[in-house]
């Protein structure tokens, strides 16, 4: 049985933490191996192996699941195609909406369980997985249920008197979806909600680093959908992901993950010119102007830097602070960091839990070490904290780096951990140039009390989202997505829904055709 990315030789958490995790795991997870969901049934892999889902904090096995293969993807596509042809594809918008509302109602009853599973497997603080991730998951299903009911199914543009032209919006059929590990249950709703509302059936691959909540949510969904409407095949990118991207019967792809993975998906999609939407990485500027309300800016920087242990594509990892307030801001910021609790993700007051595994811990540590070698100064943190209860867990301290140049490695790459690089600035135009000097363009933020400054800076920033005097505000009806190498298309709102539909134009002539020649 395979157990990836957790190094048990690094230590052992306290018995209290271990017992708490075992007790909660027993209440929310199955004792039996999790199968793949294909055609409405939980099935074993044809050629794959049984894998262990690991507790990010303790390193112990939470449950086992069958890892899928390319052959399993083929089975799932066949089931999804049958469901599209015979059942779900024939549902009218009201029926689809009712089903999504039923799913939301059922998930509401299991909201706390699903949040705990994400905290166990991924390490995120339970207060965040419950009040952010699980809450957004449920609201997304309700939002897209509403869109299914009210969507425009066609229009009649003006035309010649003897012709009628109209359009219809139709689903693609079978769509493939590949998700990331940092918001496992929430991403299920982000992707499946609009795809189902538009009338598609789904083959879904979760990340091997966080499988269990996806399988539990899919099980709830399966109770309210025709067999084969939603299919879940856990597995690796080279096996399951590659087959989803190049399968000839899948006509639309959606993927959330790294920019490198997004490029691989795009290459695979060329096999039959699939439609593609991608939500990818970010290295986002968080800009503090000298007139900013520093209390708000500090709080926003804490959220931007350390929410979800910094394992978020929208992280404000490059913190641009004007020289006039640099010293005061940094003092306040580091003082406020002291109130953040790093600890067991299942403890009620924890703000920052472990990273997803030791492989990722080593990656984050390497970025900090490299930054120091390149001239940066560690102002706060910089490594694994002394936390006896979490000995051996992949925990990383909230870290502030100063004396960072915008072309340093830590400022160019996506660290994806609780690390923020502070860059002091004086000239506004030069700062904007530096903020935009990145291959990414997912998110950004501006802190100022001047309305003109806010709008002018928002216009100048090359990012899919610009937050002004706030951070990480995501709403159901507001699009989310990136510029440049941060992705294609949008999530969350009507744009996401429309990306799962294709336009058909029908032109009807009810007059005499002109003669040719």
TrEMBL record:
Pfam families membership: Aldedh (PF00171)
Ranges for domain Aldehyde dehydrogenase: 42-506
Gene3D superfamilies in the cross-refs: Aldehyde Dehydrogenase, Chain A, domain 1, Aldehyde Dehydrogenase, Chain A, domain 2
InterPro entries: Ald_DH/histidinol_DH (IPR016161), Ald_DH_C (IPR016163), Ald_DH_CS_CYS (IPR016160), Ald_DH_CS_GLU (IPR029510), Ald_DH_N (IPR016162), Aldehyde_DH_dom (IPR015590)
GO molecular function, one term: oxidoreductase activity, acting on the aldehyde or oxo group of donors, NAD or NADP as acceptor
Alphabetized PROSITE patterns for the sequence: ALDEHYDE_DEHYDR_CYS, ALDEHYDE_DEHYDR_GLU
Active site annotation, chain numbering: 279
Assigned keywords, A-Z: Oxidoreductase
UniProt cross-references to PANTHER family, sorted A to Z: ALDEHYDE DEHYDROGENASE-RELATED
Family indicated by similarity: Belongs to the aldehyde dehydrogenase family.
Description of how the protein assembles with itself and partners: Homotetramer.
Protein name: Aldehyde dehydrogenase family protein
Organism expressing this protein natively: Halocatena salina
